[in-house]
Amino acid sequence: MSSYIFRRLLQGIPTFFGITILSFLLMLTAPGDPVSMIMFNPSATPEAVATMRRQLGLDQPPLTQYIYWLVGNDWAQIDSDGDGVGDSYGLRHGLLRGDLGQSLKHKRPVSELIAERIPATLQLTVSALIVGYGLGALLGVLSAVYHRSWFDQSVRLLSVVGTAVPAFWLGLIFIIIFSVTLDWLPMSGMSDITNRSGGFDLIASLKHLIMPVSVLALGIVASVARFTRTEMLETLHQDFIRTAHAKGLNNRRVWWRHAIRNALIPIATFLGPELGGLLGGAVIIEQVFGWPGMGRLVVNGVFQRDYPLVMGSVVVGAVLFIIGLLLSDMLYAWLDPRIRLS
Amino acid sequence: MTETALTTSIAKLDSPTSKSRTFWQDALAHLRRDRLTILAFSALLLLTLVCLLAPPIAENILKIDPTDTSVPDRFLPPGSEGHFLGTDHLGRDALIRLLYGGRISLAIAYSASLMSILIGVSIGLVSGYYGGGLDDFITWMISTLSSIPTLFLLLIAASLWTPSAETLVLILAALGWIGTCRLVRGQVFSLKQRDYVLAARALGASDFRIMFQHIFPNLLPIVIVTLTIVAGNLILTESGLSFLGLGVQPPTPTWGNMLTDSRSFFAKGTYLVVWPGLSIMLTVLCFYIVGDGLRDALDPRTARR
């Protein structure tokens, strides 16, 4: 198992470097001068701007800039006053050490901004993932077990319609029904701002979670249900199921003890790819429900042309996605010995 | 069975009355029996036609312009005289804006899906056929691009270039080919091992000829299915981007940015939220159903009933 994980980790490395190259190239082509945008001080002297440029390594050729951007230049003596002699350390710490640059709008490190917002996004996506997988698998299994019944037909309908509905539109419809008309659930935000005691209110948080999570989970429910149904139907036609029946086991026991275990394993492979769509979906859903996560941060960053913030978020989003792919592969290998031993 | 009976039945098989059907005729015959797919396909065709004809319809039948604003006619409910689906916050007719929006949304979906398929198939074909270092490079590019959530890539693109319908098509096509390419590449890997490829090569056919004359026709079934699914996906993506305000900019209507507008008027014009969303959903649904139907019809392994 550990050798499998190691191999899988090694495979992730070129991909990660590909992402850094892509982000760096985009940073390089982005319009506007980064230094004057960071300083944003009309009275800054040209000397001060030139000094900062050298400290950030922006006077270097692109390849050197890329290396500085990746591993930082605070370990090297930088010629900050332009006299040809190194005199002070650079200002970059490098992407690999968590330095994603300075946000042009917020005047704060991008890594700090993202770290503040990530828990909210993870809360949303992980809840949606759990709900989506749980419900999707359950519906898929039941639909296969009651093959060709009205229940099966409705699950099939749901799994087609569920992938065709734009999630943000469903969110708007939910807001109209449950917030505006019925006034059952809060329209936006993550917690009650009127809560004066300042303590954590579980009920209020759950109420805020219900709509965004169910909207985000719908797509997953649809695809997982569809996939599980197919897998389960296939499993039910295999020899060991017939043997189990022949042994005299009742249906319930055959389904729950024998079939489900085998049918559910391939769903683990589904987990990783689904995560990318989920992160993208979260960006839109956060906008609909005013959820204070990374999505809102990055969309505002796009509007404000805050390139370091946008690129930083992209790198973080990609890393989250790669970690998700890795975890799902590992889960699959752990569940299915044929994979890790091959 | 006597020997004569056997001979006549064999003769019957050879006779022109039981003509053999080509693969495409077979697929068409299968499709004809698939009522749901036919229904979805007709709906798509009708929708495309109506959206395409939106300007003459607006002029001659409804006698309204999509940009006509009228303060007294704001938020007329659906079914009002002259405004079948109601009016929006500026008094513009919802139906005609829906048709004009559909024009843009469908045009983007059709052209971007065609372009992305074209790119995906060419790169996948070359990469899968030649293999080696070129294939390694392309595989690396694919795995890099596909490990960034697509929406994030679109956000970068939207932040670098001001979005309009044309740039959006280019951006969506430039990012949408990855899935197709991966699929095609895998197929080409198995197809190039076939004997007929070997035979063609023995006859002295060039690589180009083998790729496009011999391998490509065998890819057509998946390419057609992928095209419909991708078109459906692109409608969803475009509407999401427009909803965020990063797609086609108002006042040009698209289904996505009509929803952005409608958000501010929940109380007065609930129906303004309903129409664009329903249009998106039904269109995407039709694309998916047609895609599924085509997959069944074009897969010779599907049991023919």
Give your account of this protein's structure.
The complex is a heterodimer of chains A (342) and B (305). Helices cover 71% and strands 1% of the residues of chain A. Chain A has 342 residues and is an all-alpha fold. In chain A, helix 5 runs antiparallel to helix 6 (150-164) and helix 5 (110-145) crosses helix 8. The mean pLDDT of chain A is 80. By secondary structure, chain B is an all-alpha fold. The mean pLDDT of chain B is 81. Chains A and B meet through helix 1, helix 6, helix 7, helix 11 and helix 12 of A and helix 6, helix 7, helix 10 and helix 12 of B.
How do the strands and helices of this protein lay out in sequence?
The complex is a heterodimer of chains A (342) and B (305).
Chain A: H1 2-29, H2 34-39, H3 46-55, H4 62-71, E1 77-78, E2 88-89, H5 110-145, H6 150-164, H7 167-181, H8 202-236, H9 239-246, H10 251-264, H11 267-289, H12 294-303, H13 307-335, H14 337-341
Antiparallel strand pairs in A: 1-2
Helix pairs in contact in A: 1-4, 1-13, 5-6, 5-8, 5-11, 6-8, 7-8, 7-11, 8-10, 8-11, 9-10, 11-12, 11-13, 12-13
Chain B: H1 3-14, H2 23-32, H3 35-52, H4 54-62, H5 94-130, H6 132-145, H7 150-160, H8 165-191, H9 195-202, H10 207-244, H11 255-262, H12 270-298
Helix pairs in contact in B: 2-12, 3-5, 3-12, 4-5, 5-6, 5-8, 5-10, 7-8, 8-10, 9-10, 10-11, 10-12, 11-12
